[in-house]
């Protein structure tokens, strides 16, 4: 059973309240999700293809990410999810935005890396393929092609 901390709409943790994955989140409570957009030092952006059995199966994700576990802050969550979903280890992340949708607070991070492009890890049951695409191609992708399309707007500010 995966447990999450509860937050108010301003991103403040609500002491003593625990949320449970797949259980309804009560009105007025939010859970925390961290996403990491990965750009190689050569300018390409990492896309991961979701396993066909998952929600949005076959779609491409422009981020590694997921829900913060109980006691985990947004940055720690982002680093953990990046390693679990891609194998990439980094120390530096740039926070590029926060979005609130329905009952979720999304903390968006950016990482530029020199990680060997052929050493991306595919997580069984999660991802089936990956590709590195030029930033221009990524920016031009239609939102219907991506699961995490909201991250597209952040590439403009970080691709310098």
TL;DR of this structure?
The protein is of the alpha+beta class and 160 residues long. The chain contains three helices and nine strands. It has helices spanning 74-86, 135-140, 152-158; strands at residues 3-7, 13-20, 31-40, 44-50, 60-61, 64-67, 94-101, 104-113, 127-134.
Name the CATH homologous superfamily: Nucleoside Triphosphate Pyrophosphohydrolase
CATH architecture, by name, is Alpha-Beta Complex
Q: Proportion of β residues?
A: 35-45%
What is the CATH third-level topology name?
Answer: Nucleoside Triphosphate Pyrophosphohydrolase
Note the main sheet.
4 strands, mixed
What gap, in angstroms, lies between the N and C termini? 42 Å
The low-pLDDT segments are none
The ordered string of helix (H) and strand (E) elements is EEEEEEHEEEHH
| Tally of separate domains | 1
Order of strands, main sheet, comes to 6-3-8-7
Overall 3D shape:
globular
Can you describe what's shown?
This protein is an alpha+beta fold and 160 residues long. It has a single domain (3-158), classed as Nucleoside Triphosphate Pyrophosphohydrolase, CATH 3.90.79.10. It contains three helices and nine strands. The protein has helices at residues 74-86, 135-140, 152-158, and strands spanning 3-7, 13-20, 31-40, 44-50, 60-61, 64-67, 94-101, 104-113, 127-134. The protein has a four-stranded mixed sheet, sandwiched between helices. The chain has a three-stranded antiparallel sheet with strand order 5-4-9. A two-stranded antiparallel ribbon has the order 1-2. The longest helix has 13 residues, at 74-86. It is globular and about 45 Å long. The termini are far apart.
